[in-house]
Amino acid sequence: MTAEVPARAVPGVPIPGRPKPGWQSPDAERRRDGSRSSLVADVLTEVIAARTAQTGQPSLDIVDVGAGTGGFAVSLASAGHRVTVVDPSPDALAAARWRAAEAGVSLTDVQGEAADLTSLVGTASADLVICHSVLEYVDSPAAALAAVAQVLRPGGTVSVLAANTVAAVLQRALAGRYAEARALLPGEGERHEEPAAQGARAARRFTLPELTALIAGAGLRVGDAHGIRIFSGLLPGAGADLTTADALHELEEAAATCPPLRDIAARLHILGIAVPGK
């Protein structure tokens, strides 16, 4: 299992007047592809800024679980943070090391599974954990989030990004694949899994209530939830027209926290906060 969020650099705490290697501006990314939401990166920027203000430390300890080839991790390291990438794939870790070397930054890479996070990086060792496109593939999402909770320091945050069951149903129904849509309906199957190729692990999907229950079940306080790719997830080719890409991006961002629309997004992004003293 490897996981990587669509490319968009995350500015952390930049050095004034000096661009960071591997970082590109939000405007440049939005012009390139308006269908790719930068909302996750914007939310993480706010989380990082709040945590640095809270701790008084400009550099944070960040763990990227299922980091894949290190897209987010390298951007965070480029912003001066201490980043550890964890992935079960040695090939993915090698690619992350190469990407970091190209950007002139260093990463700590550890091979392993999300459920073993405490033994891999230690308890109370992280200010922020990135858990993007991970819960779909692990053996036990509950065990993975329980491990994340133990790794977080009091007041730390986990960023969870996962595929949405509701969006998958809508996409298949709109394409006329009604039997597939029905099979993915909540209640039709316990795990809402995407059929996998032979030898591959099936991809799990979640509803928003399921994700919030998993986060709360890990002992974390459920934070803000956003819908990622609401309209572009339903409209083939949305964002390909650069003349309307900015308008699409603005629409996606405005609708991301509107519950009826947020809940049908292709992906769901939710924060979990480690409550001090709990």
Give structural attributes.
globular; disordered N terminus; two-stranded antiparallel ribbon; 7-stranded mixed beta sheet; 278 residues; 20% strand; 38% helix; single chain; alpha/beta
Main sheet overview: 7 strands, mixed
**Can you tell me the overall shape?**
globular
Query: What gap, in angstroms, lies between the N and C termini?
Result: 31 Å
Rg over CA atoms, rounded to whole Å, is 18 Å
Model regions low in confidence, pLDDT < 50 over at least 5 residues: 1-37
| Proportion of residues in β-strands | 15-25%
Overall helicity: 25-40%
- The overall average pLDDT, rounded, is 84
The run of helices and strands is HHEHEHEHEHEHHEEHEHHE
Give the helix/strand class: alpha/beta
Number of helices: 11
Q: In which order are the strands of the major sheet placed?
A: 3-2-1-4-5-9-8
Structure write-up:
By secondary structure, this protein is of the alpha/beta class. 38% of the residues lie in helices and 20% in strands. It is built from eleven helices and nine strands. Strands 3-2-1-4-5-9-8 form a seven-stranded mixed β-sheet, sandwiched between helices. A two-stranded antiparallel ribbon has the order 6-7. Helix 3 runs parallel beside helix 4 and helix 7 runs antiparallel to helix 8. The chain is globular, with a radius of gyration of 18 Å. The N terminus is likely disordered.
